[in-house]
Write a structure and sequence with these properties.
This protein is of the alpha+beta class. It is built from 11 helices and 15 strands. The longest helix has 23 residues.
Length: 414
């Protein structure tokens, strides 16, 4: 999906409720004693009818019980609702699967569905038993609260160390019908995915074949959520799922042709913007870093280099200090596990305040430190790395490394 002009969509409000036939809600169940009653910790999304559904999961060998249960429920490629909690990840617990199943049963009873129709997810502290009684008590009220404007309450419920709600929605045309696709995401720390990122929930009223839906999700995740890193840690509970209910009334997308490409463009618009929001809201972060690597022999090489740059702790710290220490970029490029000629590497730094070249053909070039300081003073920093004249390119997103990252993770459980 590189080097193409994305078209055919417009941004709209509503997040996971933007698409026809979807409602959402969030509630404070009190999963953490003494927690803020204004902070929701249990969310639900529901469609008016069964959906075609697909998902991707963490590649961490340690996986939360909700992932095991959701994998089982999505074997038939269908779902109708999501229930998700924050505060507790329900991971590495002997009774984890039992409680994940109970969450599905409670949601199914309240929504008059089958438990197998439910996607379940959890996020929060690992290795502590999930208190199921508050969830059981809260689910009926949560189901009753579902509305077409409940997306904000749902987003609030899945946030942990996030400081900003993350939701995006777009409108597009397929089969002559107006369709919508929206999503919400939680993610701020423990982010370095190999296949999916944190918890991401997507809804669309577009009718689309299951295999094509799953293929589109895989392809777009690879160039969006899979290109983000905050701290180099891959979570145990990462999940991205999409539900399509067909309420837009378009002829189902069943072939890999024009409507399918428009659908993928819409999916890219949502996931790319969610990925950027997540990187910008990295734990303690003050700046978003976007690295574009070009001139590689292939896209994979470019991806490896771009991700190496945005995951370098030394470079991330330099960006926090607004220090144009380009040697740290070249160092990260140099230890990237890919083949290229370091003597062909050029590096530039940019922001809304301008662009400045700091390295050419693997060596430093004179530049104004004062000008560089002004450029790096912005909230969005762009790193452009060229490693040759090949056709390969890739973009990756990260954030700076600040004092607050240590503070947040030093007392995460307290």
């Amino acid at each position: 999906m590189k080097n193409k002009k994305f078209k055919g969509y417009a941004f709209v409000e509503g997040g996971v409720c933007a698409a026809q036939g979807f409602k959402a809600g969030g509630i404070h169940a009190g999963l953490k004693p003494g927690s803020d009653p204004n902070k929701n910790d249990l969310a639900m999304i529901c469609s008016v009818k069964p959906c075609t559904a697909a998902a991707m999961y963490t590649t961490n060998k340690v996986q939360g019980a909700p992932i095991i249960v959701t994998r089982r429920h999505l074997r038939n490629g269908q779902a109708q609702a999501v229930i998700v909690n924050s505060v507790n990840a329900n991971t590495c617990n002997a009774d984890g699967e039992e409680k994940a199943n109970l969450m599905c049963e409670y949601a199914a009873k309240a929504l008059d569905l089958h438990p197998e129709d439910i996607i379940v997810a959890s996020t929060g502290v690992i290795g502590q038993p999930l208190p199921i009684e508050p969830i059981e008590k809260a689910v009926p009220a949560l189901a009753e609260s579902l509305s077409e404007t409940g997306n904000a309450a749902a987003v609030n419920a899945i946030m942990t160390t996030d400081t900003q709600p993350k939701e995006v929605a777009v409108e597009f045309t397929a089969g002559g019908k107006t369709c919508r696709l929206g999503g919400m995401l939680k993610g701020s720390g423990m982010i370095h995915p190999n296949m999916a990122t944190t918890l991401t929930f997507l809804t669309t009223d577009c009718a689309i074949d299951h295999d094509l839906l799953a293929a589109a999700l895989r392809e777009v995740v690879f160039v969006t959520l899979n290109r983000v890193s905050v701290d180099g840690d891959t979570s145990t509970n990462d999940m991205v799922c999409v539900m399509a209910n067909g309420e837009a009334g378009n002829a189902p997308i069943v072939t890999n042709e024009e409507d399918y490409e428009v659908f993928k463009d819409a999916l890219y618009a949502v996931l790319m913007n969610l990925a950027r929001k997540m990187a910008r809201d990295g734990e303690g972060a003050t700046k978003l870093i976007e690295c574009l690597c070009e001139g590689a022999e292939d896209d994979k090489t470019a991806e490896i280099v771009a991700k190496s740059v945005i995951t370098s702790s030394l470079f991330k710290a330099a960006i926090f200090g607004e220090d144009a220490n380009w040697g740290r970029i070249l160092c990260a490029v140099g230890y990237a596990p890919a083949e290229f000629n370091i003597k062909k590497v050029d590096v530039s730094l940019g922001s809304a305040k301008g662009t400045i070249q700091v390295c050419k053909k693997g060596a430093g070039v004179p530049f104004s430190e004062e000008e560089a300081k002004v450029i790096l003073g912005e909230e969005e920093i762009f790193v452009h790395v060229t490693i040759g004249k090949g056709p390969g390119s890739a973009v990756a997103w990260g954030c700076d490394l600040t004092y607050d990252y240590v503070r947040i993770n030093g007392d995460y459980r307290s």
